[in-house]
Design goal:
The complex is a heterodimer of chains A (495) and B (277). Chain A has 495 residues and is α/β, with parallel strands linked by helices. Chain A contains 21 helices and 17 strands. Chain A has helices spanning 4-11, 14-22, 25-29, 41-44, 57-66, 75-78, 85-93, 97-107, 111-117, 129-134, 141-155, 178-190, 206-209, 218-230, 247-252, 283-292, 318-329, 350-358, 427-431, 461-464, 469-494; strands at 37-38, 52-54, 170-174, 193-197, 234-236, 255-260, 266-267, 280-282, 310-314, 334-339, 362-365, 367-374, 380-393, 399-412, 415-418, 422-423, 456-458. Chain B is of the alpha/beta class and 277 residues long. Chain B has nine helices and 17 strands. The two termini of chain B are 26 Å apart. The chains are: A alpha/beta (495), B alpha/beta (277). Chain A binds chain B through residues 199-201, 237-240, 243-246, 249, 265-267, 269, 271, 275-276, 278-279, 281-282, 284-285, 288-289, 293-294, 298, 300-304, 306, 377-378, 425-427, and chain B through 23-24, 26-27, 37, 41-44, 68-69, 72, 83-89, 215-216, 218-223, 225-227, 232, 237, 251, 254-255, 257-259, 262-263, 266. The structure holds flavin-adenine dinucleotide (FAD) (2 copies), iron/sulfur cluster and FE2/S2 (inorganic) cluster.
């Protein structure tokens, strides 16, 4: 929660006062927003290296000068974990880049990740004074966050958070996505004996198997995982809680409480004719084969993946963008987004849509597949698309897409990737009797992220049903606080 | 890392590995499988847990060489390690005491059938098992299966052992003769398809264990999906066993060939590399 008093005291510090005096507000607002340095679109759409190359110290410094260090920093309201944004930006203006990173880490466990994947245009930057009051491009908070975090990582002077004396109490996370990692960092800091269980052979959840390396390189996640290991966190890949061992087995081994961050891993299909044809895959399968298993892009990988001339991706979110841009990079001549609403209504990050257009992705908006046609061997060959138009606004205020009766289009395709959303992973709810879940299968929690079973806490996509990295991390941290309180009380009772 | 404790060749292409995996050995039940990744850059492949030993903390896998990953796995020796094993996965077989149970295994399907035969017998059923193979040399686990069956009927395509003919002949033989409460068939999709048609004639409820392509094995990707009774199911979490008469085997057969060309080339490259070394 935003603690106004605290931000005020911070803002009143002498160094901040001095910086504000250095440059007049008017001069600050006359500066132009910086540009991200990017790989050339036609070069990057053939490789898996990061698209955004980062900004230099000089660019970062200039950008930091745009920030007005407002008395009421509304940007903080837009950030789901309330990062002290002006303070970290002013540290950059001081050229104390490590100091800036330290501020970020007070509230954000993985700033290098968030700087890359947060939808800033809907969050902090959307509520920046520049956006709200000046109708000018906001301070590039996301770029600066990434800059500070990268600077720290590359400096070799990374600060490993101090860990309190061990209290020898065992706690476990089910899942190693951003929710589980953020939870683990906080619990380790308090002094718990922390184990993170992960079903897959790699740690990181969606950050590893879902989001491609051209947006989020694996080395960044691995670096953070190494830091968690240095804080004493134990990782157990290839371990499915509820299968490899049950909650009760782990309780008997002394685990005092669990954090369930098992994500929304169940892919949705549309259940239309022909959808089980060969070369129609969920985005989870497509991205897992290519990102996690290295299919096609790593010549030494034993895992295959379909590679076609025409790849159609159904959906308009980040997952759809990641899939279609992956297909382009693997050599598709046509990589097409098929989405039933208009382009403005696509839920993906604006930057990704923008990058996709630059890379030569085609967009078939207001189209919706209704049937697939396969050849005699079962391979998909054509898809029939229903054309849509925007009708009356629905309850959410968005204009509802409605089919234009009788107007369809048939196009040739070699590969189809279905990215129409995911559902909560049903595994944990299925093995825990008495766990309260909603009709959508998400776990019900109270304000401390505690479920209906007192030693089971939960957060991230398994609670929200599909959200963002930063919300998942915020949940993990809140759950850590709630769990610590629960264990302390329970422990005190016994004494 | 899971260490290989022992290795035994059961036939030219089929190998039995006993692997250290104490946690899985403890919780697994008949019908469960694991996903194995042999080495870095390796593929994740599903394999049935044929047996386990809770005392020694081991599981037994029986692997038929069909492509690169199975070949790499059986090229390992006692003392070597497998990089990743995760499990137990899938739903366990619903084993209960019901009377006479007819089990049918074809080819390498005999391996996943073994724990089920054993389970049914230990639950107090009368177990009749039909084993089918192309020829005598490809028949595996005969003694182990005999140990847990009241009767074993062996069918070979070429008549080199047991009776000559397909698995369906053996099944009919039993069903004509006596009432059967339940049947389970495991083998190549085409064999299961015809076995199911046969048992249907006698109104014997029949389960088939499906060996679709998989990636994660935890319900995350949908690679393993099949149509059962008109609905899409994920074999790794909803199965691997389903009512055999509801499974769309033709679709399953097609889906199994999704990567056939790539895999054939890759396997050829692998074998060429190996012989050149
Ligand atoms: C392709 C893609 C792109 C995305 N892009 C963005 C983006 O740009 N910005 C953004 O903010 N968000 C994005 N998202 C959403 C974001 O990644 C998720 O909201 C976030 O990862 C959720 O985190 P989590 O920790 O709840 O779960 P996950 O990251 O889903 O992690 C859950 C983990 O738990 C494991 N698990 C499940 N059950 C068990 C069990 N029983 N035992 C052990 N382990 C288990 C799973 O294997 C998995 O690794 C994207 C998602 C996808 C799929
Ligand atoms: C639940 C389950 C349990 C299984 N248990 C066993 C077991 O106990 N022992 C065992 O040897 N195998 C078992 N299998 C099959 C095994 O997973 C495959 O043989 C293996 O994935 C092949 O990998 P590969 O890289 O060696 O061959 P690939 O290169 O992947 O395939 C080679 C050829 O085999 C065909 N093929 C691929 N996958 C399968 C499959 N699942 N079934 C049949 N043919 C296939 C392909 O069409 C291809 O032409 C099981 C499968 C499932 C789903
Ligand atoms: S609202 Fe914008 S200008 Fe004001 S403190 Fe936040 S980032 Fe800086
Ligand atoms: S193997 Fe991925 S969902 Fe079954």
């Amino acid at each position: 929660m935003k603690d106004l008093e605290y931000y005020k005291i911070e803002r009143a510090q002498q160094w901040r006062e001095e910086l504000r005096k250095n440059l007049k507000a008017k001069d600050r607002t006359s500066l132009d927003r910086c540009q991200m340095v990017e790989q050339d679109p036609m070069q990057r759409n053939t490789n898996f290296s990061e698209v955004n190359l980062g900004i230099s110290e000089e660019i970062a410094y200039n950008e930091s000068r745009r920030c007005l260090d407002c008395a009421d920093p509304t940007c903080i309201d837009g950030c789901p974990v309330n990062i002290n944004i002006p303070k970290f930006i002013k540290k950059i203006e001081l050229k104390d880049f490590l100091g800036a990173a330290a501020i970020l880490k007070e509230t954000n466990t993985l700033p290098a990740v968030c700087g890359r994947v947060c939808p800033q245009e809907k969050q902090c930057e959307n509520s920046c004074f520049y956006t709200v009051k000046l109708a000018k491009p906001p301070v590039a908070i996301g770029f600066l966050e990434r800059f500070a975090a990268d600077y720290e990582r590359n400096s070799g002077k990374i600060s490993i958070p101090e860990v309190s004396k061990s209290n020898r109490l065992k706690v476990a996370s089910v899942g190693s996505g951003p929710a589980g990692l953020a939870w683990a960092a906080d619990m380790a800091r308090i002094g718990y004996d922390v184990t993170v269980f992960e079903a897959l052979h790699e740690i990181g959840g969606v950050l590893k198997y879902g989001i491609p390396e051209f947006r989020l390189p694996n080395e960044i996640i691995d670096f953070e995982i190494e830091n968690l290991k240095k804080m004493g966190v134990k990782f157990r890949p290839n371990f499915i809680v509820g299968k490899t061992k049950h909650f009760d087995d782990l309780r008997n081994e002394g685990f005092k409480a669990f954090f369930v961050g098992s994500g929304a891993g169940l892919p949705n299909f549309m259940n239309i004719p022909g959808e089980n044809s060969i070369n129609i895959l969920s985005s989870n399968e497509y991205l897992t084969r290519i990102n996690l298993m290295g299919a096609i892009r790593n010549v030494n990988s034993d895992t295959p993946a379909p590679n076609g001339k025409v790849v159609a991706v159904i959906g308009g979110g980040n997952t759809a963008m990641d899939s279609v841009r992956t297909a382009k990079r693997l050599g598709a001549e046509r990589a097409i987004i098929v989405y039933r609403r208009s382009r403005e209504e696509m839920p993906a990050r604006i930057e990704e849509v923008h990058h996709a257009i630059e890379e030569g992705i085609e967009f078939l908006n207001l189209h919706n597949p209704i049937e697939y046609i396969a050849d005699e061997k079962g391979f998909v060959k054509k898809m029939i698309l229903q054309k849509m138009e925007l009708g009356e606004p629905d309850s959410s205020g968005r204009r509802k897409p409605v089919p234009i009766q009788g107007v369809t289009e048939t196009i040739d395709v070699d590969v189809v990737v279905v990215a129409v959303g995911v559902s909560p992973n049903p595994l944990v709810p299925s093995v825990l009797e008495n766990l309260e879940v909603t009709k959508w299968g998400t776990i019900v929690v109270n304000e401390n992220m505690q479920s209906s079973i007192e030693d089971v806490f939960a957060g991230g996509d398994i609670v929200r049903g599909g959200a963002t990295v930063i919300l998942a991390m915020g949940d993990g941290r809140k759950a850590a606080e709630g769990m610590n309180k629960y264990i302390q009380e329970k422990f005190a009772e016994k004494k | 890392m899971n260490k290989i404790i022992s290795k035994e060749n059961l036939s030219e292409k089929v190998t039995k590995l006993v692997i250290d995996a104490p946690e899985i050995a403890q919780t697994r039940k008949p019908g469960h499988f694991v996903i194995v990744r042999v080495e870095n850059n390796g593929e994740r492949i599903p394999l049935t847990i044929a047996d386990s030993d809770t005392h020694n903390g081991t599981i037994t896998l029986i692997i038929q060489e069909v492509g690169v990953t199975s070949a790499k796995l059986i090229a390992l020796n006692q003392g070597d390690s497998v990089l990743d094993i995760v499990g137990p996965l899938g739903k366990a077989t619903n084993i209960h005491k019901i009377g006479t149970v007819l089990c049918a295994g074809g080819g390498v399907g005999i391996a996943p059938l073994f724990p089920i035969v054993k389970g049914y017998k230990e639950a107090g059923n009368r177990v009749i098992t039909v084993l089918a193979a192309r020829n005598k040399d490809l028949l595996i686990l005969e003694n182990e299966i005999r140990h847990y069956s009241d009767e074993v009927i062996i069918m070979t395509d070429d008549g080199s052992y047991g009776q000559k003919g397909l698995v369906t002949v053996g099944l009919e033989l039993v069903m004509q003769r006596e009432p059967v409460a339940e049947a389970i068939v495991i083998g190549p999709a085409i064999m299961m398809k015809f076995a199911a048609l046969t048992t249907k004639k006698y109104n014997v409820p029949t389960q088939a264990s499906l060996n679709t392509i998989m990636v994660d094995g935890t319900g995350m990707c949908g690679a393993c999906r099949v149509t059962v009774g008109g609905e899409t199911k994920f074999v790794c979490v909803d199965g691997p066993e389903f009512d055999a008469n509801l499974v769309d085997f033709d679709q399953m057969l097609q889906r199994l060939s999704a990567y056939k060309d790539d895999e054939t080339v890759h396997f050829h490259e692998y074998q060429t590399c190996k012989t050149h070394k």
